[in-house]
Input
Amino acid sequence: MSHAFDRHDHGTCIASALSAAEAACAGRGMQLTPLRRRTLEILLESHVALGAYDVLARLEAEGFGSKPPVAYRALGFLVENGFAHRIEGLSAYVACARPGSPHDPSFLVCRSCRRVAEEEIQAPLAPEAEAEGFAIERTVVEAQGLCPACRGRA
Amino acid sequence: MSHAFDRHDHGTCIASALSAAEAACAGRGMQLTPLRRRTLEILLESHVALGAYDVLARLEAEGFGSKPPVAYRALGFLVENGFAHRIEGLSAYVACARPGSPHDPSFLVCRSCRRVAEEEIQAPLAPEAEAEGFAIERTVVEAQGLCPACRGRA
DNA sequence: CGCCTCTTGTTATACTATAACATCCGCGCT
DNA sequence: AGCGCGGATGTTATAGTATAACAAGAGGCG
Output
C-alpha cells in the first residue's frame, strides 16, 4: 500500500524520488535543471495534489519566471518522464510515489484535503479493449472520496 | 460490449436513451425540459464526446441562450441524473450508453476521433481503499488510445 | 568564431467553468 | 383574480486552466 495517508518517514519519500529522478535523467540524457528539480521538490513536500498555478506561485517566490508556461513546462517534463502524475479529476499534479519503475498509475484522491495515494493495479480495461480492437495507450484510474483523516474530521 | 466502434442501429441508442430519461424524470419529479432534452439529443447524435462550448454553439444556433451557464447547467443536470457522463481526460461530455441502471461507468476514449465506448467493470480500487480506510465516492476509469477505425487510418 | 539545440523567459490568447443576479412561468393558495 | 413560491432560463462578469508564438541566453562542437 501507499503511505500517503499514514504516518511515515517522509524524508525517505523525498530522497528516493529525487535520486530516482537524477538517475533516470542521467541514463536518458535528460537534464534535471534547477527549475525542474525545484518543481519536483515542491510536489514532493507533501502527498497533496497541487494546481499548476500553485506551483507557479511557489516558483515565482523563489526567483523563477512568473508566467504560466514556466510551471506547465516543468510539470510537463516531470509527467512525461514519470516523476510526477497529473490527477485528471482535480486538474492538479502530484509527485510519483513509485519513481523508477514505469507503471500505469492509479490513485485514491481525497476530495477534502487533496491528498493522493498512488496504488498499483492491473490495467482494468484490457479485456474490453481487446474485444473491441481498441489500442490502449494510457489508463486513468482515480477513485475520489474521503481519506481516513478527513472521514474522522467530518 | 459497447457499440460505439461498431456499425449498429444508432436510432435505437437514441430512442432508448430518450425514453429512459423521460421515465426517470417522471419517476423522480424532475423535468426533462426542451433545453435539457435537446442537449441530450445533441450528445446522442453520436458516441463522440463534445465539449461544453460545442454543445453551447449548437444550442445557440437553435434559439437557446448563448452564454456558458446555459450549456453547463443542462449538462450538469444530465450528468447528475445519469443520462450523460463527463470524460475527465477530455473535459468533455458524452451520452450515457446504459441509461436506466445506475452504474460506475468506465470508458475507452479514442484520442483521434473522440469517440467513446462505455464499458462495465468492477470497482478496481475497492480492496486498496478498504486497506487504507479510504471511503470511495466515485471512480473515474478512462482508457485513452486509438479506436479500430483510427488505428486503420494511421 | 558560428551554428545548433535546449532551456527559460516573455506576451498574448484560448479554453473551461462558475458566481451572482434578473426574468419568466406555472402552480397552489386565499 | 391576485399573491407568493420554486424552478428553469437568461444575462453579466469573472475565475481558473492551458498553450501558441516569439525572444534571449548557455553550452557543445565543428
